[in-house]
Design a protein that fits this description.
heterodimer, A: mainly alpha, Arc Repressor Mutant, subunit A, B: alpha+beta, Phosphorylase Kinase, domain 1, Transferase(Phosphotransferase), domain 1, 3 domains, 22 helices, 10% strand
C-alpha cells in the first residue's frame, strides 16, 4: 500500500497549504487510488470500455491541483468530498462528449463550491454523523487504504468487487456483464474478498 | 476448475457474506454480532465488506442526492447524472425514489438494463401506473441515432397486442430521452427461472403465446433481436408480455464506428447469424432461434449455451449443438424436444419459417396432434452428434482412418508380422475406448478441466505405445507429435498447449532412448532429431501465443460489452 504513508491527510493538507509543494504532491498521490475506485464504481461498464477511469482521475487531479488555492475546507472529509465533486463533473463532461454536445456550462462554479450540502449525493457532512471527529478521520484514512488494496487486486477481482459491492448489481447481473456463469462469479467474488482481506491484513 | 465451490464450508461462508452484503445494501445496519456468533472466522471478511461499503456512499445519502438531483434539474449535468446513475448506485431494484419527472412521479426503480434505468412511475394527468425507461446518454450520441430511436419508437407505439408491452409515449426532458411503457405488475421470466425449470406443458403453452406475440411484431416489420427471459414479463395471472422490442436495433448495435461488430451482451440467446454479426442475415428467423433458446431454458433450467467466458459461449453458439433437453429433464417429450431443437438450428433455413409456424406446432403438440418438426435423418443425426461432441468425433474419426490404413497395409503388403499388427489394432481400439471415457468425464462440470488434461496425456501415451510396438520413429509417423500440439490449441487453453508440447517432447526423447537401448538403432543422425524437437517447441510457442491472442481479443470484447 503506497498511500497515506505516515502522515495523515489533514497534516499533508496543512503543510501543502503552507506552501510545501512536496506535501501537495504526496497528498494527490495518496488520493489517486481512491478516486480511481470511486470513478469506476460510478461508471457504467460501457463507459469504462471507451474511457479509461484513470484518464478522468488524471484530469480531476490536474484541476484540483490548479484550483487548490480555492479549496476552503480543512477536514479530510471535506477534502475527499471536494475531489469527488470535481470527479463527478468530469464524468458528466465525458458523457456529454459522447452525446455530441460539448457544452461545459456552469461546471467551474459547481466544481469549486465547497461540497457542504452538495447536491450530487457525495456530500459528507460531519454534522450528519454520530461519529466523533477522530473516528471520522480514521474512516477517511481507511477508505484510502481500502481503495489502494482494491486496485492491487487482479483485474477480474477488481471488477467483481466494483460491480457487486459498489455498483450493487445482483450476482445475476454481474454474471451477465462479466460474461460468466453465476456460480463462477460467486466464486470469483469469494476469492476477491479473501484476497482483499489478506491485503488489508487486519488493517481495517 | 469447477464452477461450484468445492468445499461446503466455502458455500456456507458465501451464503453468510452474501446475506450480510444484502443487508448492508438494503440500508439496515446488519447485526455483526449475530453473524459472528455463528462464524467468528469471518470477522475479517465482514470488515472488508464494511470497508468497501464505506467507499460507496451510504444508501440514505444517495436517495436524497438523487431526489434532489431530479427536482432541481436545471441543466443537462443533472439529467446526465441520472443517465449515468452516478451517485445512485444504491439502487437495488424496488428502492423508493419519490421524485418528479415531468408529468410523471417516479415511484421506484424496477431495474437496470443495457439501455438504461427503468422506473415505476405514476402519470399524474391520467393517474395511471406506467414504467419509464431512461435511455443512457451514450446510446443516443448522434442526431442520426436520435432520429432512428424516434422512428423505431413510433413504429413500436402503433403495436397493440395483449401480450406485447405497449409504448405510450417517447420524449425528452432536460436532455434525457425516455419512453413510457405500460406497467406490468409481476416479474420477469428470468426471475421466475431462477427457481428452476418449468413443467414442459406449461413451458410449451407459454412459448406458444410468446411466439404469437412475436409474430405480431414481425407482421408490423419489427424484429425483436433481443428476446431473452429478462425481456419477457409474467403478469400476476401468469400471462407473458414481450417487452424491449425493436429498439434494440437502434440502441444496441451502434454508436458510430466504435461499436459496429461488437458482440453485445452474453450471446446465450442469440442466433448464430446474430452472434457472428452477420447483420444482413438477421431477421424474423433469428427471433425464432431466440424463442427456441427461451424454450430450452424453460425446459432445462439453463440456456442452450453458457460457458465461463463470452468467447467460449460464442464458439459454442457458432459451432456446437446443444445437449438434448431430455438429458436434463426426462419429462420432456420427444416431440417437444424436436420442436425446440428445430428452432435452434444453425442455419436459418432449417428453422421454422415464422414465429407463427412455431406457435402452431406447439399448439398441435398441446392438443396431442402430430407435430411438424420431423425427427432428424441418419446423416443429420450424425452431424448433430459430431457437433455436440467434436473432440470425440474427431478422435474416433482419426482412429478409424488409422485402423483402415494399418489394416490395408497389413493385408496388401504382407510386410508386417501378425503379432505386431494385432497389437497396433488393439492399442487403437483401446484408445477409442479411452476417448469415450474422457468424453464422458467432460460432461461433468467439476472435472471437465482435468479431463481435458487426462485426454491430452492419453493421446501422447497411446501414440508412444504404437511407436514402441512398430519400432519405427523415423518414418512419416513423427508428424503425429506436431499434429497433437497443433490440435491441442483447439481447446483454447494456453496451459493445455504447453502441457501437450512438454509431454510430446518427453515422449519423443523417451522413444529415442527406447530405440537406442532395445533396437533397431536410430538410422538418422542426431541433429535431425534435434531439429524435430526444436520444431515441436516452436510450434508450441506459436499455438500457445495464438490462443493467448484470441483470449485477449475475447477479454477486449468482454469489456466493450454493453451492460
Amino acid at each position: 500500500m503506497n498511500s497515506a504513508n505516515d502522515s495523515s491527510i489533514v497534516e499533508m493538507l496543512g503543510r501543502a497549504r503552507a506552501g510545501d509543494r512536496q506535501q501537495l504532491d504526496r497528498l494527490f498521490h495518496a488520493c489517486r487510488s481512491y478516486l480511481n475506485v470511486i470513478a469506476r464504481s460510478q461508471m457504467e461498464s460501457w463507459m469504462q470500455a471507451k474511457v479509461d477511469a484513470s484518464d478522468i482521475v488524471q484530469e480531476t487531479l490536474l484541476e484540483a491541483h490548479r484550483d487548490f488555492a480555492r479549496f476552503q475546507g480543512t477536514s479530510a472529509g471535506e477534502w475527499l468530498a471536494w475531489l469527488r465533486g470535481i470527479l463527478a463533473n468530469n464524468a458528466a463532461d465525458v458523457i456529454r462528449k459522447y452525446r455530441g454536445t460539448e457544452k461545459r456550462q456552469t461546471r467551474r462554479e459547481v466544481a469549486l463550491q465547497p461540497p457542504a450540502g452538495d447536491s450530487s449525493g457525495f456530500a459528507f457532512d460531519p454534522a450528519d454523523s454520530i461519529d466523533t471527529p477522530s473516528v471520522q478521520l480514521m474512516r477517511q484514512e481507511r477508505e484510502l487504504r481500502v481503495a489502494d488494496a482494491i486496485l492491487n487486486l487482479s483485474p477480474d477481482h477488481q471488477q467483481v468487487i466494483i460491480l457487486r459491492n459498489m455498483q450493487r448489481l445482483s450476482f445475476e447481473d454481474v454474471a451477465e456483464r462479466m460474461g460468466r456463469t453465476r456460480p463462477a462469479v460467486q466464486m470469483l467474488w469469494m476469492r476477491a474478498i479473501r484476497k482483499l482481506q489478506e491485503a488489508l491484513g487486519g488493517d481495517v | 476448475m469447477s464452477d461450484q465451490p468445492d468445499d461446503p464450508a466455502d458455500a456456507q461462508a458465501f451464503e453468510l457474506l452474501d446475506s450480510y452484503l444484502a443487508a448492508l445494501h438494503a440500508g439496515s445496519a446488519p447485526d455483526r454480532r449475530q453473524f459472528l456468533a455463528r462464524h467468528p472466522e469471518l470477522a475479517a471478511a465482514l470488515d472488508c465488506l464494511d470497508a468497501i461499503a464505506s467507499l460507496a456512499p451510504a444508501p440514505t445519502e444517495h436517495l436524497d442526492g438523487r431526489a434532489r438531483v431530479v427536482q432541481s434539474a436545471p441543466t443537462q449535468i443533472v439529467t446526465d447524472a441520472i443517465a449515468m446513475a452516478a451517485p445512485a448506485r444504491d439502487s437495488s431494484p424496488g428502492a423508493a425514489v419519490r421524485s418528479d419527472f415531468g408529468d410523471y412521479e417516479l415511484l421506484a426503480e424496477l431495474g437496470r438494463g443495457g439501455m438504461g434505468v427503468v422506473y415505476k412511475a405514476r402519470q399524474k394527468s391520467l393517474d395511471r401506473l406506467v414504467a419509464i425507461k431512461m435511455i443512457l446518454a451514450s446510446h443516443l450520441a448522434t442526431n442520426d441515432q436520435v432520429a432512428r430511436f424516434y422512428a423505431e419508437a413510433k413504429a413500436a407505439a402503433k403495436l397493440q397486442h395483449p401480450h406485447v408491452v405497449g409504448i405510450h409515449e417517447v420524449g425528452q426532458l432536460h436532455g434525457q430521452h425516455y419512453f413510457v411503457m405500460e406497467h406490468v405488475e409481476g416479474q420477469s421470466l428470468a426471475v421466475r427461472l431462477a427457481s428452476g425449470p418449468i413443467e414442459p406443458t406449461a413451458a410449451a403453452e407459454l412459448v406458444a403465446t410468446i411466439a404469437r406475440a412475436v409474430n405480431h411484431l414481425h407482421a408490423q416489420g419489427i424484429v425483436h433481436r433481443d428476446l431473452k427471459p429478462s425481456n419477457i414479463l409474467i403478469d400476476s395471472r401468469g400471462q407473458p408480455h414481450v417487452t424491449d422490442f425493436g429498439l434494440a436495433k437502434v440502441l444496441m448495435t451502434d454508436s458510430g464506428a466504435t461499436h459496429s461488430g461488437a458482440i453485445v451482451g452474453t450471446p446465450s440467446y442469440m442466433a448464430p447469424e446474430q452472434a457472428a454479426a452477420r447483420g444482413s442475415q438477421v431477421g424474423p428467423r433469428s427471433d425464432v432461434y431466440s424463442l427456441g433458446a427461451v424454450l430450452y431454458e424453460l425446459l432445462t433450467g439453463r440456456p442452450p449455451f453458457r460457458e465461463a467466458t463470452p468467447l467460449d459461449t460464442l464458439v459454442q453458439v457458432l459451432e456446437a449443438e446443444p445437449r438434448l433437453p431430455r438429458e436434463f429433464n426426462s419429462n420432456v417429450s420427444r416431440d417437444l424436444e424436436m420442436i425446440c431443437l428445430r428452432c435452434l438450428e444453425k442455419s436459418p433455413e432449417a428453422r421454422y419459417t415464422t414465429a407463427l409456424a412455431l406457435a402452431e406446432d406447439l399448439e398441435r403438440l398441446l392438443k396431442g396432434e402430430s407435430v411438424d418438426a420431423r425427427p432428424p435423418g441418419i446423416l443429420q443425426r450424425l452431424r448433430r452428434w459430431s457437433r455436440r461432441k467434436p473432440a470425440l468425433a474427431s478422435h474416433v474419426g482419426m482412429l478409424a482412418l488409422c485402423a483402415v490404413i494399418v489394416q490395408a497395409n497389413y493385408s496388401m503388403t504382407q510386410s508386417v508380422d501378425p503379432v505386431t499388427h494385432l497389437r497396433v489394432i488393439g492399442v487403437l481400439a483401446g484408445w477409442a475406448v479411452i476417448c469415450l471415457a474422457c468424453q464422458h468425464l467432460l460432461s461433468f462440470d467439476r472435472i471437465a478441466e482435468r479431463a481435458r488434461y487426462v485426454w491430452a496425456a492419453a493421446d501422447v501415451m497411446l501414440f508412444t505405445a504404437v511407436v514402441m510396438i512398430t519400432r519405427d520413429l523415423e518414418g512419416p509417423v513423427v508428424g503425429v507429435f506436431p499434429g497433437l500440439v497443433a490440435a491441442s490449441g483447439l481447446w483454447f487453453r494456453e496451459r493445455l498447449v504447453w502441457f501437450m508440447c512438454a509431454l510430446s517432447i518427453v515422449a519423443y526423447l523417451w522413444l529415442m532412448l527406447f530405440l537406442t537401448l532395445v533396437g533397431p538403432p536410430l538410422r538418422e543422425p542426431l541433429f535431425r532429431h534435434i531439429i524435430l524437437l526444436v520444431v515441436l517447441v516452436v510450434l508450441g510457442v506459436v499455438v500457445a501465443y495464438q490462443v493467448k491472442r484470441i483470449r485477449a481479443l475475447s477479454r477486449y470484447y468482454e469489456h466493450r460489452q454493453l451492460p
